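Researcher: Please predict.
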Amino acid sequence: HEALRSQDPPPTFFDISMNALRTLGYGLRVRGDLRQLPFRGATYDRILCIGVLHHLPSRVPILRELARVLRPGGQLVLGVYAPGSLQSRLRRLHDACSSRLWRRCVFGLTRQLIRARYRSAGRPLDDAAVTTRARDFLHVPFVQYADPELYFGEAESAGLRRAGQQRIAA
């Protein structure tokens, strides 16, 4: 999200978590629920919805709400964890482990991967932030790691049109 820092007008960040919003030092920060966005219709030219849909059991109403606040001809970018991704494999491994020792090992591996990812992006995290992100990653409920085609189908049923697809390796 650092690339958004120089945007004019400044971006609006929306999240249900005030803690997540506090990590941002710029832009408008709005806390709320995706099922009822506090924005007028046709407000935004571009919406980035990254790392959200795979957590939700019912996505079509939320996609309709995103479509409502998107201007005609606007762009909605969706980012989801797909099957076969590192995230899905770590989560499945964690959830399958009944041994506390193995869960601690998966947690430690997840911490190291998060630390390396942020360091390679030039944004090193302190130990507390790494631990929080690893805990959130492994313990926040995930509904499913679905094939992206599922999300495209749901987006189309919400009135959105597919413009393209790109797989970004983790």
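Model: The mean pLDDT is 88.
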